[in-house]
Design a protein that fits this description.
- This protein has 13 helices and 2 strands.
- By secondary structure, it is mostly helical.
- The chain has a two-stranded antiparallel sheet with strand order 1-2.
- Helix 2 runs antiparallel to helix 10 and helix 5 runs parallel beside helix 8.
- The longest helix has 29 residues.
- It starts with 58 loop residues before the first strand and ends in a 6-residue tail after the last helix.
Length: 382
C-alpha cells in the first residue's frame, strides 16, 4: 500500500533518459505523490542515484497501494536507467527483480497485517502505530541522507490535506473495514483505485481526455467489482458497511493525488523530504483523533503489536524507499506493475494464513478489475 504518489505509467518510458523517481500507493494500488522537483531515488542498500541534468519527457501522475490518473506533467530531472548504477558506477546490491518481488509481498501482506493488528487493538490505534513506525523509518532515512523538512506555512497546509487523504483517512478506513470484511476483499477493493482515479481525472483534470479504450476499461473494471461483490445474488453475505469503507478508502487515494497534483507538483523539495513530512503530519492527525474515540489499551498483545510494527516499518516506511529505487532503475512503467500483484498476494495470504473462505467470484472478479485498470492506463498509438 502506497503512501506517496507516482508518475503515471500509462505514458511510454523515454528510451534515452530515465524516469521520474517518484514511485507508486500502497494501494496498492498503486500508491503516491506528485512530481516534486529534486526527487531522489534510494538504492537498497547504497547511495542515492543522483539526478541527471537533462530533463525527461513529459509523463503522467497516477491516481494508487496502489493507481494512476492520466494528467500529463513535466517530470523532474531524469535518472538514467543504467541497471542500478549511480554516477559512481556501482551496482545496486540487490537485483531489481528481487526488490520488486519483496515490494509486492510487503504490500500484498499489508491487508493481512491490518487484520491481525485489529484483533488486538482498535482500528485507530493500529493506524496510529502504523504511521508512527512508518514515519520513524523515513526519519532515519532523512537523517542518513541529511534531508531537511520542507518550509513554509502554505506547503505544510497542503501537506496536511495530503496526509489526511493519502494516509490518515484511507489507512483508518481499511482498518475499520477489516473488522467486518475479510482481508482478501479489502485487498481487491484497494485495486479499484486506478478506476476511481480514471473517473475523477476525466472530471477534475481538464488536460485529461478520455478515449474509448479507457472508458471501456473503466466499465470493465467496475463490472469486475460487481462480480467480486456478488451483485447477481443480491450481495448475499456481504457486509455493506465494511465494503463501503474499503471502497471509500480506495477512492480517497486518487482524490488526494489530484489535490497534490494541483498544489504541490511544483515543490522544489525532494520526495523523501515531502513524504517524510506528510507521514509526520498524518501521525499528528491520528495522535489527536485516537484518544477521542478509543481508550488506552490495558494490555499489549504481542502478535497484533508486531503486525502493526511490520505494517508501519515495512509497508509504510521501508517500501517507499524500495519503490523510489525501483522507479529510478527500471522506470515507472515496470515499477508500477507491482500494483497488479497486490490483490493476488493479499488473496493468497488471507486464504493460506488466515483461513478466509474464497468463492469463484472473488478471483474471477479480481482479474476483471485488474484488466479494466490496465486498460485505463493505455494510450492510443499516434
Amino acid at each position: 500500500m502506497t503512501t506517496a504518489a507516482t508518475p503515471d505509467t500509462s505514458s511510454p518510458e523515454p528510451t534515452s533518459s530515465g524516469p521520474n523517481p517518484s514511485g507508486p500507493n500502497p494501494s496498492g494500488s498503486g500508491s503516491s505523490q506528485p512530481a516534486f522537483s529534486g526527487a531522489i531515488a534510494v538504492e537498497i542498500p547504497g547511495d542515492p542515484v543522483p539526478a541527471d541534468p537533462a530533463p525527461a519527457e513529459s509523463t503522467s501522475v497516477p491516481s494508487a497501494p496502489g493507481a494512476p490518473t492520466t494528467a500529463t506533467t513535466p517530470t523532474t530531472p531524469a535518472v538514467p536507467a543504467s541497471a542500478g548504477r549511480g554516477r559512481s558506477g556501482r551496482r545496486a546490491a540487490l537485483d531489481w527483480r528481487i526488490r520488486f518481488g519483496a515490494l509486492s509481498l510487503i504490500w500484498g501482506f499489508s491487508f493481512l497485517l491490518i487484520k491481525v493488528g485489529t484483533e488486538g487493538y482498535a482500528p485507530f490505534q493500529v493506524t496510529l502505530g502504523r504511521l508512527v513506525f512508518g514515519a520513524a523509518v523515513l526519519a532515519v532515512a532523512m537523517a542518513v541522507k541529511r534531508e531537511r523538512l520542507p518550509r513554509g506555512a502554505r506547503t505544510w497546509g497542503h501537506l496536511a490535506v495530503a496526509a489526511l487523504l493519502l494516509n490518515a483517512l484511507p489507512f483508518s478506513l481499511f482498518a475499520y473495514a477489516e473488522l467486518s470484511i475479510p482481508s482478501t476483499l479489502a485487498g481487491i477493493c484497494n485495486a479499484t483505485s486506478p478506476l476511481w482515479g480514471m473517473a475523477l481525472s476525466m472530471v477534475a483534470l481538464s488536460e485529461d481526455r478520455p478515449t474509448r479504450r479507457r472508458v471501456a476499461g473503466l466499465g470493465l473494471g467496475f463490472l469486475g467489482v460487481l462480480t467480486v461483490l456478488g451483485a447477481w445474488q443480491g450481495f448475499h453475505g456481504l457486509d455493506a458497511t465494511g465494503t463501503a469503507m474499503a471502497l471509500l478508502a480506495s477512492l480517497s487515494y486518487p482524490v488526494g493525488w489530484i489535490y497534490v497534483r494541483r498544489t504541490l507538483a511544483g515543490s522544489d523539495h525532494s520526495h523523501l523530504s515531502m513524504t517524510g513530512a506528510q507521514l509526520l503530519v498524518a501521525t499528528a492527525q491520528l495522535a489527536l483523533v485516537t484518544p477521542l474515540f478509543t481508550s488506552a489499551p490495558s494490555h499489549f498483545p504481542l502478535v497484533p503489536l508486531l503486525a502493526t510494527a511490520a505494517l508501519g516499518a515495512l509497508g509504510t516506511g521501508f517500501a517507499v524507499l524500495v519503490q523510489y529505487g525501483l522507479v529510478a532503475e527500471v522506470g515507472p512503467t515496470t515499477a508500477q506493475m507491482v500494483t497488479y500483484f497486490i490483490p493476488v498476494i493479499a488473496t493468497a495470504a488471507g486464504v493460506a494464513v488466515l483461513g478466509e473462505s474464497l468463492t469463484w467470484s472473488t478471483p474471477v472478479g479480481a482479474v476483471i478489475v485488474l484488466a479494466g485498470a490496465a486498460l485505463t492506463q493505455t494510450r492510443a498509438r499516434r
